[in-house]
Design goal:
two-stranded antiparallel sheet, TIM Barrel, eight-stranded parallel sheet, 318 residues, 11 helices
Length: 318
């Protein structure tokens, strides 16, 4: 496993993390057995960075992650955990209450990274209010460092301006080979300010694994309404999968491993946080590190996707 520094902190994290959205009903029926096997195998293979959120099953993901880590004999000092406060809780009353619930779910006294999950666009809570509320938890030792998920650069700048001592160490963004919008502003901003980029959906919710040929997938989970899988978009995605397979054959790697490796090569700040439901899937994810494709292969994937845009209104207008 490769490791790097989280933001400007002294926390050392694996170059690939494990997202745990799948430990919730959004991806089917979660189970303690599944979570325990996945977390145990991740730890065996050197993953020490785990991401969860309060809204993943309204605490189910946090609870299953915490139980799995305890079963493995791991405490909070052995791993780095990030969790998130949903946008509708981003006010001075709900922030401390929700974090206290998250800590109980995880079985921790302190969480390593606390992120605002998305801006409070439906309630219009002042940004200054949740910035100060989150920093107060750092001051009280309940949180080690702060991050922002799905916030544009303008809001990141404003958030930082209201902090007294702490700073933003993590930007969490949707980023993968076929959804590259983050490269325009967020990734360069994070690089400039020595922040870690947590790339969520780094394999486009499984679309880049090569497991789902066009016309042969019918999902009953969160993917059922994802525009990536709309037939008009997926034609383009599958063309990219073909290139991933061609590149992978040169290195004896699977498409998922090539797709993640491409992200690692694209920016030293990026740490993908894919999810896994089985031990084998964890092994596949870890196979993305400790090697690098050639520049020419990286370029072939870059050129195959740089001008490709998915239509997010596809569900409604096509």
């Amino acid at each position: 496993m490769e490791y790097l520094r989280l933001g400007r902190t002294n926390l050392r994290i694996s170059r690939i993390g494990l997202g745990t959205w799948q430990f919730s009903d959004a991806w089917g029926t979660p189970s303690k057995e599944m979570a325990s096997k996945v977390v145990s195998r991740a730890l065996d293979l050197g993953i020490n960075f785990f991401d969860t959120a309060m809204v993943y099953g309204m605490g189910t993901s946090e609870r299953l992650l915490g139980e799995a880590l305890r079963e493995a004999g791991v405490d909070g000092d052995d791993v780095v955990i990030s969790t998130k406060v949903p946008g509708e809780f981003l006010n001075k009353l709900d922030v401390p209450a929700s974090v206290e619930k998250s800590l109980r779910n995880l079985g921790l006294d302190c969480v390593d990274v606390l992120l605002a999950h998305w801006p409070p666009c439906w309630h219009n809570f002042p940004l200054k209010e949740y910035a100060r509320a989150m920093e107060s938890l750092v001051n009280m030792g309940k949180v080690r460092c702060l991050g922002l998920s799905d916030h544009p650069v303008e809001l990141v700048e404003s958030f930082r301006s209201y902090l007294s001592k702490a700073d933003v160490e993590v930007l969490q963004v949707r980023y993968n080979l076929v959804e590259r919008w983050a490269e325009a502003e967020l990734v360069p901003y994070a690089e400039k300010h020595c922040m870690t980029v947590q790339a969520w959906s780094p394999i486009a919710k499984g679309a880049l694994t090569g497991k789902y040929p066009p016309g042969h997938h019918l999902f009953e989970d969160v993917r059922s309404n994802d525009p990536v899988f709309h037939p008009e978009n997926y034609k383009k995605v599958w063309d990219v999968v073909k290139v991933l397979k061609e590149v992978g054959e040169k290195y004896n790697k699977k498409p998922v491993q090539v797709a993640l490796n491409w992200l690692l090569m694209s920016s030293p700040a990026v740490v993908p946080i894919p999810g896994a439901k089985t031990s084998k899937q964890v092994e596949d994810l870890v196979g993305a590190v400790e090697w690098r494709m050639s520049y020419s292969d990286w370029l072939a994937l870059h050129e195959a996707t740089i001008n490709m845009h998915l239509m997010y209104s596809a569900r409604y207008v096509l």
